[in-house]
Structures are given as structure tokens and as C-alpha cells.
Specification:
heterodimer, A: 250 residues, alpha/beta, Rossmann fold, 6-stranded mixed β-sheet, 7 helices, 10 strands, B: 795 residues, alpha+beta, 6-stranded mixed β-barrel, 6-stranded mixed barrel, 53% helix, 19% strand
């Protein structure tokens, strides 16, 4: 894999960023009874090494479908997704599981923590199966929960739970961090804390990060903003000036 | 069609139908347990009823006697004296004796019990049912009826003839018919516990012929009588013994001690015990399973229940709705169970018909049993429903409509003790989920352990029987042949026996009937005087301990000692009930917990002294060279002084053929039953775990866990429960085995409480296998986990 990555690198000029994930011609059609719903129509997308991309779109725009496909949770009706030199769209279930396990960190709207495990153990659960993980306690310190290692999810607030989820996602040192409406279930103040953590992970660990949201304000913290509507990419903008999460307001 | 029917239902009933359809896997698993419970109940209860009815009808229609006694020789006139004993209703005197039968295709002689039939007056008591052929005709002197099981085992038919040595004279008898008697429902040689129908049978002969053959003209040597209503059996027995004593009465017995009756009654009471506790196990499991299923369903439908109540549905309506679900879930199981039970019951009854000979033994399924099956099943369903639904029903609607608070896990014992560091996160998840619902976990363990216990007791019977065989045939009866004589013979007979073809060793014994008295208790028994230093016949207790014959005093079997209230060192009164009837006080030198029978043993010389007789012998144990066996049997068949020839190997073969097969069949059913319970508990447990933690498992799949890994997390809990069920099941099984050994009539057989390693291993392995299969069936569903849905929804 490294050999191929090297050859890919040679095609790029040094100042041009490297695409970690490449989607080409993605379409997804759901058959709902007698109606075909086109969730994605011919989408091309690149996620570059180390960038923080925000995928912005209204409910039903197709942004979650896109995230699910590049996260290896779903397969497109047509088109290809390539992770470095791996063509995900040709992979079977076992290969997709391996992809998620070794390369992807997920953060969900509803945290999806294991209620029977403490914060630390929720992170350990993932580091146990990771190739080159960081120390679970370090990961929790990174998200500002160094003093709550032994709390169970039921003993943590929503924001804290989401930060545990982020620690869990980054502890394996993933190549890609995918966050699906990470602030969707949180209040304004806690939401901002969570975004600060995501920004910090992106900055300090240089993890390629994609955040899905319907919240326009969040797009200001992105390197690039990818707008999605009716299953198509409407526009891609690069922020010359990135705002810090603390400066955001909605 | 289904849709049209659905339309007819009320909305709540439509929900019911759809809920059941949705839960069909769990409903089927539960219904299977119901079916097994109902089947075992119906089969055993109806068989019990059929057997009891057949027995009681048979007894009353064929006038089975209440009191029996034998006597050396009493004049016919004494019958009148017996009749006048207060409390006696009817009296039948008879001539009964042992005969040797020579069957052409049986090498050794068979033993027959010849019973006279009064053709002039007819059988007043213990009437005969002639199955085939015809009744005896008075004028034909050499005509007999033979017993059913004996005829069947030897392929004998009416019109065939039979050679027998009767009172030392060789006779050719013609078989008039095949008959059955309430006295010999269990056709078994006195002193044995398993039938050997090839080598033992009953012959009925006219009183006139029998009297002539045994020199019993105007005399009798056996009497049977019935009691008048309200008569006291013990009083009658005492008076009868007094009347018979001068004529060599050996002591009367009541029905309870009558050999065949005792076996039939013992079987009935075993059937009653098993027919109660096995269904109880199943229905307990059913209640638990329904509780599990409904608790989860009510948990899922919590908000719906709140809504229904908000719209004005009453607690009662909602409670009934779930009760209906429980009842509907098991109704199929009940119906299948009744059908299966009827099938099993008729099979069991047919099996009993091989052992117990009734004129008619038909399996009938009484309506009351069906009704009971429904009632106890519904009761189990109601327990399961009430315990799970009551909380949800009584919750206030506003509260019920709020989602249930998240699973609240807190640090417990494992965390505080620091032990948790030793385990992986997966193991901690499993352990905490179990610890969160300790009662549920405990009940699951008990449920699975009951299937282990069922198997344990099933396999225990093999262990016990194997031990019995080992004791009886490898330790106690080491002789090749046992010969019993018509009358005591001089001790020189030993040398005559040694001169017979193939006989390598002879050990003689002396046996006399006695009555033992101690305090206010008395028991009849056979006292055996054994040679010192003999090695062909040994006294061994059920734990394989050898007991030596003391020079003085008697060795008593523990059961007999207990029934007398005597212990080692006590002096018991020994009244010999034959010959000059000496009475002596003898010390109990030792007691022995024999597996079979109720023996009394003493040194043969000591017995001779007690009897004030010269050295005479009643029989002998022989070691025989197999090559000359045929020749030896031929000689013995033609020796008038030989009353019977016993061959342990033949008894063992016959046992394996009959009893061995029966145990095999019942074990097969127990294995099936146990698997159903294990399947029901594990499948339901895993399905509910999947339902409760589907979201958790799907999240793990998203995070990169393989299907196999989450399968292990899901089933780990069931694996731990199943693992714990092993020791619990063994403990319950052991208690049940112990109870069973106690429930069996100790005077017939004492099952040793020995349990082999194989019983431990197999009882668990079979359950573990059933659990694994049901777990895999659930794990298969992990394929359908929706990984995307789980991200969108909050629990």
C-alpha cells in the first residue's frame, strides 16, 4: 500500500494536497415501494490529507448517505470510492469492516457509547483492536475528560458523552475522522465545546476530518465547505480565514 | 384471507396478532417447552390413570385376595376354621409348589410355580383370565394352563406339551390354555427384581391332579383370603398364623407384601412422582420464559402503553391484552403437547404391558387430564404475564410515555475489588450486563440447570444399574450355577455334585424361612447359612464393601434391621417357621446395605446348631466348566431332588434385553426434553439480549468490530449462564437422584448413589451443545443488523 501511495504522491506537485478519499460518479438510489429515491446523483468528492471539511446540507440532502458510503457503511448504486489505493466499492463486507476498524474514526449524533463500560473502557474497547493506538487515557485528556475516566455514560452529560465518543474515535489514530451531526443532540454551549475538541484533534493530530451538519455557522471553522442539495454537490468553497469554534455563533 | 380476518378484530387484538407474529421465534421456542411439559404430564398422568384403573378393575373382577399364607400341610377341614376367623370374607385353599420345567430349546431347566385350581368349586379368589385356548377340564389329569409372559417368551401355545419334574416325577403336561392371574401381574421369580420369563413361569393345574402329584389329598399347603369390610388386616393375620402354626404355617402376609402387587404399586407411585415433578420443571421454565418475553415487549411498548392509557384504555384492558398474548403464545404448545403426550402415553402403556400382564391394558386419555393440562399451562402463563406486566400497567401514563431512562451502570463489586483490570472490555460488558439483572441471570441459570439436572438423573440410572450389575454379577453371585433342592439333603451331596460333569467347585448352603422379632416388630425373612471361606457367593454392600460371615450371630440387611429397629449388637429372636420350629435369640453381628433383597446370613455350622440338626444342605453354588455345561444341565433336568437351577449369566442377559431397552428409551426422551429446555432458555435469552443491545452491537460493527466479535459479545452472556448452569444443574440433579433412590421401595431394590464422571460430562455437554446451536441461530440474525439506522436514532 505504501508503495502505491508513493507512486500517487509522485503525480502531485509538493504544494498540492494529497487526496485520502476519492469519490467518483457516486449515485445512490433507494427503492421505496414504487418510487425510486435518488439520494445521491453523480457525486465527485475528494478529502485531502489533514483538512477539516464541512459537508453542509439540509435534512434529506443526501449528506448522510455520502458519509455512510465513504465510511464503508453502505455501498453506492454506481460510482467508485477509493481510500488511498483501496477501491472500497469493490470490497466485500469483511474488507469494509477491516477498513472501518483500521482507518476510520466515527462520531455519531447520539454518541452510541456502550452503557455498560466506563469512559476509559469505551475507548479501550477500540484501542484493543487497533493497530497503532494512542493511550486511551491520553485520548480522554485530549478531549478534556482526564478527570472522568471511570464514569459510566449514565453519569456523564451529553457533551461529555460526545467527547468520550470523539476520544474513542481518535484514539486509534484513524486516517479519517467522520462526524455525523456531532452537535445535533447538544445545546449551544456544549456543542461549541465539542467542536473545539474536533478542531483541536484535526490541528494537533493532523487527522483528515469530515463534519456533516445542517448548521451553516459551523462551516466557518472548515478548510473547505462542501454544500450538498438534492443529492448533488452544489458548491465547494475554501475558507481563506478559518474561524475558531469559539468565534462561532448560531 | 388473513388480512380479511384481521379486519374483523379490534385494533388491540390486531396488535396482539402482529406482536405474536413479530415474536414468532421466541413464541415457538416457548411453545416447545410448553409442549414437552404438557406431553410429560399427559403421558405420565394418563398412563398412571390407565394402569391404576386396569389394576383395580382386574383386582375386583378377578377377586384378588388380601391375605396370603403358605403352610407345610394342613387338613382340608381347617378351611372352615379359617373362615370363622373374625374379619375373613372368603377363603381359598390351594396346593402350590415349585416344579422344574424342561424346555427343549433351553439348556438349563426352567422353574415353574404350580398352583392348583379348584374345578369343582371354581376359583373363589385370584380368578384366572384365559387369554387363549380353553379352561382346564377335570378329567384330563396332565393338563395345565400356563402364564402369559412365560408362554410368550418360550413360544408355547395351547395344544403344545411341556415336560416337567413334579415332586420328583417326570411328567408330560399338555397346555390347555394361556392364562393370567391378578396374583402374577408381574410374573417374576420370588426373590428376583427383574423378570426372566424364559426361565420362570406359572402353571395352573386342577386341584385333583395337583393333590395327587404332591400327596395333598384332602389337604392344602397354601391359603388366600379376602377381608370383610372394616376388618383389621393385622388381627386377621395374627389369628391365621395361630390357626396354621400347628400345621407348619410359615407366616401370613398382607397384600402390601405380595410380590407382584408390591412391584405394581411401586411402579405406580414412581409414575406419580415423576408425573408431577417433570411437568413442574417445564411449566416453571415456561413461566420464566414468558416473563422474559413480556418484560421486554412491555419495555419496548412502554410509550404505547402510556398512549393507550392516555386515551382512556383501562389498566385491566391493557393487562388482559398481555395476558392474552401469553395464553395465545402457549396454546399451540398445549395442543401439540396433548397429542405428543397421548402418543408417548400409549407407548409407555404398551411398554408396561410387556412387564405387567393385565387382561386388558389400554391407554385412555381422560378428559380430566386434558383439562388439567390446560389449567396448569394457563397458570404458568398467568404467572409469567402478571410478574412482567403489572409494573407497566400501573405506571402513570405521562411517565410511561417518556422514554425509559438510559441503562444506568455504576461501579459495582468488580470495580471496587480491582478485579476488573484482569479482564478485557468485552468481558466487563458481559459481566456488568449480568450483574445488572441478577435475578434474571439467576433464573436463567436455574432454567438451563434444570435441563442439566434432567439429563443428570437420566444418566444416573445407567450408573446405578451398572453398579447394581457390577455388585450382583461381579461381586455377589460369582457362581456359574445355583442349584436348589426340594428338601434338605445330607452334606455328602456336595461330593455327588462335584462328580457331575464339568463341576469344578461346590459350595453348599442351608436356607430356612424364619420370622425375626425385635421388640414389638417382626418380619419374615429367609435365613441363609453360608460356608466359611466360600468364594462363589459373597455378601457385598452397595458401596462394594465385602462383609465377612461371623462365626456366631447374624448379618442383617440394613433395610431389615431398620424395619425391626435393631442395630449391631442387639439380640433378635429368630423363629424358624419350618421343621421343628426352633426359636433362639441371636446377636446381630453386622448389618449390610445390600443393593438387592433383604437377606439374613449366618455361618452354616451356627445355623445347624440353631436348628439342632445334622449337616444338611438346601442348595449349592457351582463353578462349572463351560464345555460341559450342556451335559450338566441335562443331568440336572433329570435329577428329581433338584427344584431349581439358576444361572446368573442368563438373568443378566434377560435383564439387558428388557430393562436395558426400557431405560434406553426413557433416556432418549430425557435428552430430547433437556435439549428443548436449554434451547428455550438460551434462545429466548439471546433474542432478548439482541433486542436490548442491538443498537450497541450495531455501533460496534460500525466501529470496526467483525460480526464474529459482536457475536461473541452477544453470546458470551449466554455462555456464562450456561457454564454456571453446570454446577447448579449437577447439584439439583444430585438431590433429585437422592430423592429418587429414597422414593423407590427399599425392600425391593436400593439404588446405589454412584455418579460416574461421564454423567457429569454428558449432562453438561449435551446442554452446552443445545445452547450453542440456539445461540448460533440468534447470532445468524446479526447479519441483518442495520448499521445505518442505529446512527440515526436515539435509544
Amino acid at each position: 500500500m505504501d508503495a502505491i501511495t508513493d507512486t500517487v504522491r509522485k503525480d502531485h506537485s509538493p504544494d498540492q494536497p494529497l487526496a485520502v478519499l476519492q469519490a467518483r460518479g457516486l449515485s445512490k438510489v433507494y427503492h421505496m415501494g414504487e418510487v425510486d429515491v435518488h439520494a445521491l446523483r453523480d457525486v465527485d468528492l475528494d478529502l485531502f490529507e489533514g483538512e477539516l471539511a464541512v459537508l453542509l446540507g439540509a435534512s434529506g440532502s443526501g449528506k448522510s448517505t455520502l458519509l455512510n458510503i465513504i465510511g464503508g457503511l453502505d455501498t453506492p448504486t454506481s460510482g467508485t470510492v477509493t481510500f488511498r489505493d483501496h477501491v472500497l466499492t469493490e470490497a466485500d463486507d469483511a474488507a469494509l469492516t477491516e477498513y472501518r476498524r483500521d482507518h476510520v474514526g466515527f462520531v455519531f449524533q447520539f454518541y452510541n457509547l456502550i452503557p455498560s463500560l466506563t469512559a476509559l473502557e469505551n475507548v479501550q474497547l477500540i484501542t484493543e483492536i487497533a493497530v497503532d493506538p494512542m493511550d486511551p487515557a491520553e485520548a480522554l485528556k485530549l478531549v478534556g475528560l482526564g478527570d472522568r475516566l471511570h464514569h459510566f455514560p449514565a453519569q456523564l452529560s451529553g457533551g461529555e458523552q460526545q467527547r468520550v465518543a470523539i476520544a474513542r474515535a481518535v484514539a486509534k489514530q484513524p486516517d479519517v475522522l467522520l462526524c455525523d451531526e456531532p452537535t445535533g443532540a447538544l445545546d449551544y454551549k456544549t456543542g461549541k465545546i465539542v467542536l473545539e475538541v474536533i478542531e483541536r484533534v484535526n490541528r494537533e493530530l493532523n487527522t483528515t476530518t469530515a463534519v456533516i451538519t445542517h448548521n451553516e455557522a459551523i462551516s466557518k471553522m472548515a478548510d473547505r465547505v462542501i454544500r450538498i442539495g438534492s443529492g448533488r454537490i452544489v458548491s465547494i468553497e475554501t475558507n481563506e480565514e478559518k474561524a475558531s469554534p469559539g468565534e462561532l455563533s448560531w | 384471507m388473513v388480512k380479511q380476518l384481521l379486519k374483523l378484530l379490534s385494533p388491540l387484538n390486531k396488535k396482539l396478532v402482529r406482536d405474536i407474529n413479530h415474536l414468532r421465534g421466541q413464541v415457538v421456542a416457548t411453545a416447545l417447552v410448553v409442549a414437552c411439559g404438557v406431553a410429560s404430564f399427559v403421558a405420565m398422568q394418563a398412563t398412571y390413570d390407565s394402569l391404576l384403573l386396569s389394576r383395580d378393575t382386574y383386582y375386583s373382577r378377578y377377586r384378588f385376595a388380601d391375605v396370603f399364607s403358605s403352610v407345610k400341610r394342613a387338613p382340608e377341614g381347617l378351611e372352615e376354621d379359617i373362615r370363622t376367623i373374625p374379619g375373613v370374607a372368603e377363603v381359598q385353599t390351594r396346593v402350590v409348589s415349585s416344579v422344574t420345567i424342561d424346555l427343549p430349546d433351553l439348556p438349563e431347566p426352567a422353574q415353574g410355580r404350580l398352583v392348583s385350581v379348584d374345578l369343582t368349586r371354581g376359583s373363589i379368589l385370584n380368578g384366572l383370565y384365559v387369554q387363549r385356548g380353553r379352561e382346564l377340564a377335570d378329567e384330563a389329569r396332565d393338563e395345565v394352563l400356563i402364564s402369559g409372559a412365560f408362554a410368550e417368551a418360550n413360544g408355547l401355545n395351547p395344544g403344545d406339551s411341556l415336560n416337567a419334574v413334579i415332586n420328583g416325577r417326570w411328567r408330560r403336561l399338555s397346555i390347555a390354555g394361556i392364562a393370567l392371574s391378578p396374583e402374577y401381574i408381574y410374573e417374576i421369580r420370588p426373590g428376583s427384581i427383574f423378570p426372566d420369563n424364559r426361565r420362570f413361569g406359572i402353571l395352573w393345574m386342577s386341584r385333583r391332579s395337583a393333590a395327587a402329584a404332591f400327596d395333598m389329598e384332602n389337604a392344602f399347603n397354601d391359603v388366600a383370603l379376602t377381608l370383610a369390610p372394616g376388618a383389621n388386616e393385622a388381627d386377621v393375620i395374627e389369628r391365621l398364623d395361630d390357626v396354621l402354626e400347628p400345621y407348619g404355617g410359615t407366616g401370613a402376609i398382607g397384600r402390601a407384601d405380595q410380590y407382584s402387587h408390591r412391584f405394581v404399586s411401586n411402579e405406580l407411585s414412581e409414575l406419580e412422582v415423576f408425573g408431577t415433578f417433570i411437568p413442574a420443571i417445564f411449566l416453571g421454565v415456561v413461566a420464566f420464559l414468558l416473563h422474559l418475553i413480556l418484560s421486554r415487549l412491555v419495555g419496548i411498548e412502554r410509550e404505547q402503553i402510556g398512549l393507550l392509557k392516555a386515551f382512556g384504555y383501562s389498566n385491566r384492558t391493557i393487562g388482559l391484552h398481555y395476558l392474552k398474548l401469553a395464553v395465545l403464545a402457549i396454546i399451540g404448545g398445549i395442543v401439540i403437547g396433548i397429542a405428543l403426550g397421548a402418543w408417548l402415553g400409549s407407548g409407555m402403556t404398551a411398554l408396561y404391558a410387556d412387564f405387567f400382564r393385565f387382561p386388558i391394558l389400554e391407554f385412555t386419555l381422560p378428559f380430566s387430564v386434558v383439562l388439567w393440562a390446560f389449567m396448569i399451562s394457563f397458570a404458568a402463563a398467568a404467572i409469567g404475564a402478571v410478574t412482567s406486566v403489572s409494573k407497566a400497567v400501573t405506571t402513570r401514563p405521562a411517565e410511561a410515555m417518556r422514554p425509559e431512562p438510559p441503562a444506568d451502570f455504576r461501579a459495582g463489586f468488580l470495580e471496587r475489588s480491582g478485579l476488573n483490570r484482569m479482564f478485557s472490555a468485552e468481558v466487563r460488558m458481559i459481566a456488568r450486563n449480568l450483574a445488572r439483572h441478577p435475578i434474571k441471570a439467576l433464573l436463567s441459570i436455574v432454567g438451563i440447570s434444570l435441563s442439566v439436572a434432567l439429563l443428570f438423573i437420566g444418566f444416573y440410572f445407567y450408573d446405578a444399574i451398572n453398579r447394581l450389575i457390577e455388585i450382583q454379577f461381579n461381586r455377589v453371585q460369582l457362581e456359574d450355577v445355583e442349584v436348589t433342592f426340594n428338601e434338605p439333603l445330607p452334606s455328602e451331596t456336595r461330593y455327588e455334585l462335584l462328580n457331575l460333569p464339568g463341576v469344578n467347585r461346590v459350595e453348599t448352603y442351608r436356607a430356612v424361612p424364619v420370622r425375626l422379632r425385635f421388640g414389638s416388630h417382626s418380619r419374615r425373612a429367609g435365613l441363609i447359612g453360608m460356608e466359611q471361606g466360600g468364594r462363589l457367593r459373597n455378601i457385598v454392600d452397595k458401596n462394594l464393601r465385602d462383609v465377612r460371615i461371623p462365626n456366631e450371630g447374624i448379618v442383617l440387611s440394613t433395610t431389615l434391621a431398620e424395619s425391626l429397629g435393631a442395630a449391631e449388637g442387639d439380640e433378635v429372636t429368630v423363629e424358624v417357621t419350618e421343621g421343628s420350629r426352633p426359636v433362639a435369640k441371636v446377636a446381630v453381628a453386622d448389618t449390610v446395605e445390600e443393593a438387592v433383597g433383604m437377606g439374613v446370613y449366618m455361618d452354616s455350622d451356627a445355623l445347624h446348631r440353631l436348628l439342632k440338626e445334622s449337616e444338611v444342605v438346601s442348595g449349592a453354588y457351582l463353578e462349572v466348566d463351560e464345555k460341559y455345561a450342556q451335559e450338566l444341565y441335562e443331568t440336572l433336568k433329570n435329577t428329581p431332588t433338584v427344584a431349581g437351577v439358576g444361572r446368573p449369566q442368563a438373568a443378566l442377559d434377560s435383564f439387558n434385553e428388557t430393562v436395558g431397552q426400557t431405560i434406553g428409551t426413557s433416556t432418549a426422551f430425557l435428552i430430547g426434553f433437556a435439549c428443548v429446555i436449554a434451547f428455550g432458555v438460551v434462545y429466548n435469552g439471546a433474542r432478548i439480549a439482541l433486542s436490548e443491545r442491538g443498537r450497541e452491537l450495531a455501533s460496534l460493527r460500525v466501529l470496526g468490530f467483525t460480526r464474529r466479535e459482536i457475536g461473541i459479545i452477544l453470546l458470551g452472556e449466554q455462555a456464562i449462564l450456561t457454564g454456571w448452569a453446570a454446577p447448579v444443574g449437577w447439584a439439583i440433579g444430585f438431590v433429585l437422584c437422592f430423592a429418587t433412590t429414597r422414593a423407590i421401595d427399599a425392600e425391593i431394590i436400593r439404588l446405589p448413589l454412584v455418579i460416574s464422571v461421564a454423567t457429569f460430562v454428558y449432562s453438561f455437554l449435551i446442554v452446552a451443545f443445545a445452547a450453542l446451536l440456539s445461540g448460533l441461530l440468534v447470532a445468524w440474525r446479526l447479519r441483518n443488523l442495520d448499521l445505518i439506522e442505529v446512527l440515526k436514532t436515539r435509544e
